[in-house]
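User: I'm putting together a small comparison set for a docking exercise, and I want a reference complex before I start. The sequence is below, and the ligand is copper (II) ion. Could you produce the 3D structure with the ligand included, as C-alpha cells?
Assistant: Of course. I'll restate your input first, then give the C-alpha cells for the complex.
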Amino acid sequence: MKKISLVLWVLFGLSAGCGPAPAPEILTGEGIVEKVVIPDRRVIVAHEDIPGFMDAMTMSFEVNKPSLLHKLKPGDHIRFTLERTKLTLYLVAVEKIAIRTAEGQGSSE
Ligand SMILES: [Cu+2]
C-alpha cells in the first residue's frame, strides 16, 4: 500500500513538472521559398522531409517576428527553425543556404 501511494505521488509530481507552459519543441528543415505574405506574417515554403514531424510538402509557416520575412524572396533556398507547441507552430529563425547543383554553380552570379 505504501509503495503504490509513493508511485502515484511520483507520477503526479512528474506530470505537474510538465506544467501549463511546456518548452516548445525545436525542429529544423530546409526548403525553397515560394511566396512571402507579409500582411499575414507568413512564408510559403516547399520544404523537404522534417524527420519525425512532416514529409516533404509545400505549406505556409507563420513567423514569430515579421522582420524575418523581409530578407526572403521567392526562390531562396533556406534552412529554418520551427518552434512547435501543442497549440502553435512558428518559424523562428531562417538562414539562406547555398544550393548544391550537379554542375557546382550554386553560388550567386
Ligand atoms: Cu509541412
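The chain has a mean pLDDT of 85. The pocket of copper (II) ion is lined by residues 47, 54, 57, 59 (CB under 6 Å).
User: Thanks, that's exactly what I needed.
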